[in-house]
Write a structure and sequence with these properties.
Largest sheet: 7 strands, parallel
Bound molecules: adenosine-5'-triphosphate
Strand order of the largest sheet: 3-4-2-5-6-1-7
Strand content: 5-15%
Distance between the termini: 27 Å
Number of helices: 24
Structural class: alpha/beta
Length: 664
């Protein structure tokens, strides 16, 4: 493939790097670990001073053409890495490698595909960021070379966080790049995206660029990373990842997660070539961090808020992350607790917030002792400093979700604690967590009922004083039931196990004077458009007798918006934008809708190079998918209505945009 003259000239201009690159190439090749090998346990005898001396000796030998094997290294400065990367690592305070870094980086440096698994907080981000930087450096990649690396992450926040690590460790390299992390202006991004060497983004946004950006060119891609790979390859992002894979060449691929997929079917979809299976904690007795203390309590639904309040009141000096199952619950609990003043700052985080607001809240939470109420938007990957407690008020949808949620504490050698409230009706989850194969050391504690603060009366008083809170409470009630109803794991989540009395008591615990009336609408698989419309029309909805007693008491309440009706929606955010044959399927509702809201930082003003044609000629044509502000596919008619009806809004949104981060 011929590259333009200008690129060659730019590369020749970096002759001081050329010698180092030659040396690194030779070292990487001569000292590479054998496929399938793991590093030996690190020797404990050498002091830090010894280790530095060894590292200097290794580097001097390499400069003299004697290349040592690097598969057993314990420090970053013993690896065949560029001086720019080593200097930045040292400045950032990274010296000793973590287990996953020791095991994965040597194999990744010599170009192998990796399927990496290690516990939460064990340093997986650096395990892929370093090979990415080195790959591009050794390929003499420059800003003019276009997209060389794509890193896909499930949420915008996580993409932003990964980009921060790249900026820190790659700051001495001259690569361009950015986290496309907020739906700002796809048109502005179209101009710029081909000039980014490293793109970090959610799958939905990338697919959107493949669809809408003329000449979006990934044909020169060098390396692909899927963070939280199990989630990427599973139902949530399956169809989008399939599209991405079909649009890019086969390149070195790195897959990382704390709960790795082992499904051959999943892995076949990303075409891994003789991958290194690296699971550093596979033999460990626990799947969660060793320094994490975990306990569970069986708490009736109607006592959960009392329990949470009492817990917070007794931990006013702790940084606490609280998981709830829906945006409306987060909003309600946050608002009501704020009014009741527990004596510690409160924050909330969910997907309906602007990315900038989220970032500000995360930054504050990083710095302060406070309580953060969050949906699962915070469950994976986020690296928040010194969280003391993770409290799961609502049951996670799986054991893997539990592991990711509790992994927000006890990160990288720090200590942490977690507590989960499970309703008696959800005890099956406790069995799953305690099962030998889950490897989760969890203690079951009995709640001390006598210590419980009873706050239902206080909440009810607040609802009288602030009527808008009553509406919020009602919605929190309904969305909680909905969140249980839509769960796939019916062994754990089964509304029919709750009685009408349970629901009434729960409503009363939220301060509601009466139990909101709700209805359940049947879920027809592969529902046609007609069916979908019918579901939207209340009179035609089919009521399911989930709990005859409950249904007798809970009929349709017309005050609740459609979103609050217990009709099945997809639990995930931007999953399945396409149906099987590229047919537009209805917008997924999602627990967190900002996963696809994107922000791009710092504008680029370099001339574009001529780009090659897209790769996949078999992609379905003739179906132009439109996306909403969050990157979800929207119905053509809905989008037409939006364009006709809200020109001003569209214009206003556009003015928010786009800037790219740069490593320079
Ligand atoms: N070699 C290292 N030395 C010191 N600190 C490190 C090292 N590697 C990573 N860390 C720190 O450990 C913390 C957790 O790292 P990271 O976020 O990469 O974990 P993770 O394995 O990706 O976790 P999760 O599974 O939750 O996404 C970060 O604050 C990071 O800066």
């Amino acid at each position: 493939m011929r590259r333009p003259q200008r690129r060659l000239v730019a590369k020749q201009g970096r002759s001081q790097d050329a010698d180092e690159i030659r040396l690194l190439e030779a070292w990487v090749d001569a000292g590479k670990p054998r496929p399938g090998t793991k590093p030996p346990p690190p020797s404990e005898s050498s002091s830090a001073a010894d280790a530095r001396r060894i590292a200097r000796a290794v580097a001097a030998k390499a400069a003299a053409g004697e290349y040592s094997e690097y598969g057993a290294c314990t420090r970053f400065d013993e690896l065949p890495l560029s001086k720019k990367t080593k200097d930045a690592l040292r400045k950032a305070g990274y010296k000793e490698m973590s287990e996953i870094q020791r095991a994965a980086i040597p194999h990744a440096l010599c170009g192998r595909d990796i399927l990496g698994a290690a516990k939460t907080g064990s340093g997986k981000t650096l395990a892929f960021v370093i090979p990415v930087l080195e790959k591009l450096y050794r390929a003499k990649w420059s800003k003019e070379d276009g997209v060389g690396c794509i890193i896909i992450s499930p949420t915008n926040d996580l993409a932003g966080q990964i980009w921060d690590v790249i900026r820190k460790v790659g700051k001495l390299h001259g690569f361009s790049g950015g986290a496309i992390v907020k739906r700002t202006g796809i048109d502005d991004e179209k101009e710029l995206i081909n000039r980014l060497n490293i793109i970090v983004c959610t799958p939905g946004r990338l697919v959107q660029h493949f669809d809408e950006t003329p000449n979006f060119d990934c044909s020169q891609l060098q390396i692909l990373v899927l963070d939280e790979a199990d989630q990427m390859l599973h139902r949530d992002f399956q169809s989008q990842v399939d599209i991405i894979i079909s649009q890019i060449p086969k390149v070195q691929t790195l897959l990382f997660s704390a709960t790795q997929t082992k499904s051959i079917k999943d892995l076949a979809r990303v075409n891994l070539k003789n991958p290194e299976y690296i699971s550093v904690h596979e033999q460990a007795s626990t799947a969660t961090p060793d320094n994490l203390e975990q306990c569970a309590m069986i708490v009736p639904l109607e006592q959960k808020l009392n329990m949470l309040w009492s817990f917070i009141r007794r931990h006013l000096k702790s940084k606490i992350l609280v998981f709830l199952s829906s945006v409306k619950q987060v909003k309600f609990v946050y608002e009501i607790f704020k009014k009741l003043r527990p004596g510690i700052p409160l924050k909330c985080m969910h997907g309906r917030m602007k990315y900038e607001v989220q970032q500000a809240i995360v930054a504050e939470f990083n710095e302060s002792t406070s309580v953060m109420f969050s949906t699962d938007i915070f469950a994976r990957g986020l690296d928040i400093g010194d969280v003391d407690w993770v409290v799961q008020v609502d049951c996670p949808d799986s054991v893997a979700s539990y592991i990711h949620r509790v992994g927000r504490t006890a990160r990288y050698n720090k200590r942490g604690k977690s507590l989960i409230f499970l309703c008696p009706e959800e005890e099956r989850m406790l069995e799953k967590l305690k099962a030998t194969e889950s490897k989760i050391p969890i203690n079951v504690k009995k709640p001390k009922v006598e210590l419980l603060d009873q706050i239902s009366q206080n909440i009810a008083a607040m609802l009288v004083k602030f009527p808008n809170l009553q509406q919020l409470g009602k919605r929190a009630f309904v969305t909680y039931l909905k969140s249980v109803y839509i769960q796939k794991d019916k062994e754990v989540f089964d509304l029919s196990r709750f009685s009408a009395e349970n629901f009434a008591a729960y409503a009363s615990s939220l301060g509601l004077p009466v139990t909101p009336k709700i209805r359940f609408v049947s879920h027809k698989k592969n529902a046609s458009k007609k069916d979908m419309e019918d579901i939207g029309v209340k009179q035609k909805a089919k009521v399911i007798e989930i709990n005859p007693q409950a249904n007798r008491d809970m009929l349709v309440d017309d005050e609740l918006d459609d979103d609050d009706i217990l009709k099945p929606k997809k639990a995930t955010t931007d999953a399945n934008i396409y149906g099987l044959h590229g047919i537009l399927s209805p917008k997924a509702s999602g627990t967190d809708t900002n996963m696809e809201s994107e922000k791009v930082k710092e504008l680029v003003d370099r001339p574009l190079k001529k780009k090659k044609l897209k790769i996949n000629v078999h992609r379905p044509v003739g179906i132009r998918v439109k996306y909403d502000d969050e990157g979800n596919a929207i119905d053509p008619l809905a989008s037409l209505a939006e364009e006709v009806g809200s020109e001003g809004v569209i214009h206003k949104d556009k003015s928010l945009f786009s800037f790219f981060f740069f490593v320079s």
